[in-house]
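Before surveying the methods themselves, let us examine one representative protein, written as a sequence plus integers encoding its fold.
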Amino acid sequence: MTDRANKPFLRALAGETPTPPPVWLMRQAGRYLPEYRQVRTQVGGFLELCYTPEKAAEVTFQPLRRYGFDAAILFSDILVVPDALGQQVAFREGEGPVLTAVRDEAAIAALSLDGFLGHLAPVFETVRRLAAGIPQTTALIGFAGAPWTVATYMVEGAGSKEFIATKTMAYGQPEVFARLIDLLVRATGDYLIAQIDAGAEAVQLFDSWAGALPEEPFGRWVIAPTRALVERLHAERPGVPVIGFPRGAGLLYERYVAETGVDAVGLDTAVPLDWAAERLQPRCAVQGNLDPILLVAGGEALDHGVDRILAALGKGPFVFNLGHGIVPATPPDNVARLMDRIRTRR
């Protein structure tokens, strides 16, 4: 049983206001750390690292040892879900993810939940290793990509800026696209519940491309699938908080929070702080939203950015984080400066 009283991160998600606020950073395990780069040379590819529990646990622990974050997040990738469903997924150096595109009913029908959790067994072993070794005051976060965002990679066959194939299917063949989304809702729910059963104490849904949709399809393809997942998780694993991150949602953040039932919401860098404090924080805990490039810049610019966020959001349930993930060019010393600024500011 999780002892929430000793974990500031879980206290914040439960509506408390720990001082100083808890902090973790998206992509806190990654290429900006020399120790990560050293481990990365020991495996053949990125997916191999995700599926090697000993090494995935090690790179998850690395930033905790350096900085003492209040939460660790499982080291994995959102695309292990389509990989486990039977879609071909590869990561190419300098190119990013490449998938065999799913663009018709036959391709969707070829995806299967048979053997899905078995394929992901190494991920759950990583979670168990993390749960066994994590500091007593540190929380363990599991995660998955939200159905809309994962679907964009599956349909496009890669990352995209315009999402032409995905939107064309969603707009022109909504009943076909709904089959893919429904499958992802089931698969993602199974995946997150297995992470919780392995030791995850909270879960985050990354909807990185939520901002690509106008209001009406946002309701159908972002809000509705997220609500279904939150309802299932709350029903089947009560007490485990769910964080939603609808990056780029703009004014639709408010509707997202109101209609999905998430326990906390991650703010991207464009969300105005005073607006978030007034419209979002009374409904749930908020998390964010420092510009990751301020971590690259460092110095007084970083200090000012940290102070602004703490002043605006630190009076309510709040988790300090970035508005997106740490970039590889980030000097590790700047992360140490960030932590010192948060922990010593009064």
About this structure: The radius of gyration is 19 Å.
